[in-house]
Every structure is written in structure tokens, then in C-alpha cells.
Amino acid sequence: MAWGLDNARAIFGAVLIIFILWLLSENRKKFPWRLAFGAMAVQAVLVFLLFGLPASQAVLNTVNSAVDGLAAATAEGTKFVFGYLGGGEMPFVKVDANAPSPFLFAFNVLPLILVISALSALLWHWKILQWITRGFGFLFEKSMGLGGASALATAANIFMGMVESPIVIKGYLDKLSRSELFMMMVVGLSTVAGSTMVAYATILAPTLPNAAGHVLVASIITAPAGILAARIMIPETMFEGGADLDYTSQLKYSSSMDAITNGVQDGLMVMINVGAFLLVFVSFVAIINGVLGVFGDVAGAPLTLQRIFGFIFSPLAWVIGIPWNESQQAGGLLGTKLFLTEFVAFLDLGAVPQAAMTERTRMIMTYALCGFANVGSVGIMTGGMTALMPERRGEILELAWKALIPGFLATMLSATIVAILPMAVFGAH
Length: 429
Known about the structure:
mainly alpha; single chain; 2 strands; 19 helices; 69% helix
């Protein structure tokens, strides 16, 4: 697929997003020009390195194989606990013996969160994940001028949740400046956790080639975008912040079994929260759509919340590089992500038939949706951070809702970087 007007329009989209962030800035005279060019360059280079080089394709294929392996291993545990509901042998004869087992979210996706949470804790205890996080932290510290503490917290957000990552620098939280605290919130809302990455990849795998690779890269490249968005809105004051860090993390486990135990407990809470939020939000959407049904057909189709989101957010979808004929459907997904959860949006994206959306649009939307920036997550983040920093409760409450818009726009910025590049970079034709 050749480079064309849709790619060129994404350049304007990136500029427009940065302009909106500048309009929302507390200090418009202090725009971080160097960081703006540096962050976008880092994003473009990371995308090219992770997709464009022949060796990188082998790495991403390994990631996809690892996700498939984790899903298969988790399926064995699910079958043992839940029997035929989890994919085990059925106690009755199917009408069509060759028909695949039905996809049940509670048994096909939620258990993955539990397994990945425990595995992440174990890899952290074995210092494997610590060294990977330190590597990204060093990259952000040297390339973007971040203080050691905020650089490490930003790197941790690539793999961990927005509540877990501050624990990594718990001993430095009281030393963070207001700007650094805000940046940690924005990056937390603009990225996702490792436990949910695998779940998203599993949902998208049937309709998006290399889904696991795209979800992983989306979380990695959105971290610089989150840094930029936060720094534009609340610039760092000279001689403020920049706490040095000795990389001795406050997140520790006494043994491998302790790591697994804590990982399971943390994963259980995430799994319950995800399931409960989805149950409630999907029910609310059904209620609202039922109420909207009294208006009958509008423009040839029933009025639904998804259609309303589509009308409102279709210009944003178009400006980030999506063709106009697909922008309403894409806009509906953006609205669902912001006001409901990214999980609902990913489920809706995965349910779009292959022929109803091009691979390029599906790929761009994966990057646009891959972040925790939604109304519900602000409450979760506020609760977690105030528990860790009770003395900064007022400051956290002031900044939390302010972080929602830049967190959302950071994922849009990542989507524009992907949309600017020709599809050949991603191995598509």
C-alpha cells in the first residue's frame, strides 16, 4: 500500500494534537521544542526498528509465539478449573462436531490476566523485568532529560499498571516535583499493563496480523508521547525535580513463591475489576441504547451510543489518518475507549468483521486504543496514588482529572506516527 493523502493527513493530525495540548498548557511561553522533536523522533525510530528491520520481524514473531504459548498454557489451567466452560471436553455431543468452542470472555481472556500478573511478579523478582525497565529508564533519562526517578517510573509504566509503577520508586515519591507527578499520571493513563497487553492481543489476534507485536509496540512508543503531552501541559520549572536514583527499587519479594503469591493476589484484583467494570459498562450501554431507541431510526439506522460517539469523534479519527468512510466506526471506538473502557473498545474492534475494516485502520486503532485513559481509570489511579502518598492527596486530586485528556491524546499521537508510515514498514502490502 503506497504512501498517500491519508498518511500525509496524519502529519497534520500530530501537529493539531500538540497544538491542543499547548492550548491547555499552564505556561504557553515554555513550550518544550527539543522534547517535542525528540519524542516524536524516538517514536518513529522505535516503530521502524521494531517493524522495519528483518531481524525485528523475528523478534515480533517470537513475541506472538510467546503470547500464543501463554494463552495455550493458561487454557490448560482454565480447563482444569472450569471444565468444558474453559474449553475442556464437553459432557454432551455438539450438533456440529467440527465447530470451534464458543469464545467466552470470562474463561478465555480474564484467566490470562491472572497468569501474566504472577509471571510478571516472578520475572521482577528474578530481576529480568527490572533490567529491561532500567534499560528504558536510562533511554528516557538520557534522550529526554528526565530525572532518574521519573524516568524509571515512566519505563515501569510500559510493563506495569498505573498503580503498580509508582511502587517501583516508592522511596522517591515525596521528592517528585508537581510536573513529575503529573507526568507519571499521564504516562500511566496513556500506556497499559503487561497483564492486559496479552488479553488485548488475544482479542485482536483473529482479525489483526501480528496483534501481540502491535500491542507491545503501542505501549512502548506511547510512553514518550505521554512524557511530551505532560511536559507541554505542565512544564518543568528550572531547578525543580530531577531526583537522582540509585535504581534500588522499593518493589521487592522475599522469594519466588512470595512473588507468585503476590502476583496472583494482585492479578485477582485486576481480573475482578476488569470483569466487574465490563459487566456494568456493557449493561449501561444496553440501558442507554434502549432509551435512545424511543427516537426510532435516525439517518436510516437506530440511534445508539456507539453511533453518537461515532458522530462526535469521527473528525478526530479522520485527522489521525483514517479514511473518511471508516472514520465513523473508528470514532465510535474512540468514544467507547474514553467514556467506557479500552477493554470494551478492544472487544468491539475485535468483533468488527475482517471485510468491514481495512488492516491499516485496524492497526491504527490498536495504537489509538492502547491506553488506560478513560473515566473509570482516573478513579482507580487516584485511589492507588493517594494510598501511596497520603500527604499529597490534595495535589493528586487536583491533577488526576487534568491528566485524562493528555493521556488520551498521547495515544492519538502514537496512532498518527503509525499512520504517517507506509504499510510496507509493517510487512503489509
